[in-house]
Amino acid sequence: MKLSSDYLGRLEFLRRVLVKWFREFGRKFPWRGEVGWYGILLAEFLLVRTRSEVAERAFYELLTKFPTPEALCSAGVAPVRGIFEKIGLPSRAERLVATVCRVLKDYSGEPPCDYQELLKLPGVGDYIARVMLSRVCGKHAAFVDSNVLRVLSRFLGLRLSASKVAELLERSIPEGELLDVNVALLDLGALVCRPRKTLCSLCPLSPGCSTSSGVGDLQGHREGPQDFAV
């Protein structure tokens, strides 16, 4: 994939502006602190199709009842399912317990830092695997949800897949900065560049955005989104 100088320049603008915005306006969640692989894994299993504030309550409850991976593995599925039932995701409990127990048993208590190995864990797909690679293993890996995909597609005015967005970020953001940019994109998509009622007037990327209305309400792509061919 070859990027034109125009797109590279716009992605550099995104990197500089977005991190500054995030330092002031980024959301604060307990799983963004020093919670280790166990806390990160708990959060990602909870955040599937769940609002962040709902997941946050369940996160605290899980850590209170099962403060270590050993405690959760020993407890078994039933008590963990009780917490997941409160957020409408009871089936995630069994997969979470299976994954935590497998990490303890098969990987000496530390999750593998290999993408294919991570995908072998129950309930771990592309997104969670990439989160683990980035946040636990410190690898240069982007994780792309609907928020990140929406922000980059609108900003560049391109029809993009999640895999293309991940590739764009990994190629254009310097080593050591990708995680900060990635999390900032998550928050911008959740708080400002929303699916509807987009707050363009509050967006730090608005000056360089292909689709910004500039008046606080997305009007649509100015010239229509272009296929990804840069």
Question: Would you write up a description of this structure?
Answer:
This protein has two domains: 110 residues, Endonuclease Iii, domain 2 (Orthogonal Bundle), CATH 1.10.1670; 102 residues, Endonuclease III, domain 1 (Orthogonal Bundle). The protein is built from eleven helices and two strands. The longest helix is centred in the first third of the chain and has 21 residues. The radius of gyration is 19 Å and the shape is globular. The N and C termini lie close together (8 Å). The C terminus is likely disordered.
Q: What is the β-strand count?
A: 2
The parts where pLDDT drops under 50 for at least 5 residues are 215-230
* Main sheet record: 2 strands, parallel
Secondary structure: helix percent: 55-70%
Estimate the mean pLDDT confidence. Answer: 90
Q: What number of structural domains do the residues give? A: 2
| Rg estimate, integer Å | 19 Å
Number of helices: 11
**Estimated share of beta-strand residues:** under 5%
Oligomer category: single chain
- End-to-end CA span: 8 Å
**Corresponding CATH architecture of the largest domain:** Orthogonal Bundle
CATH topology of the largest domain: Endonuclease Iii, domain 2
Question: What shape does the CA trace take?
Answer: globular
CATH superfamily of the largest domain: Helix-hairpin-Helix base-excision DNA repair enzymes (C-terminal)
Report strand order across the widest sheet: 1-2
Name the CATH class of the largest domain. Mainly Alpha
SSE pattern, N- to C-terminal: HHHHHHHHHEHHE
Structural class: mainly alpha
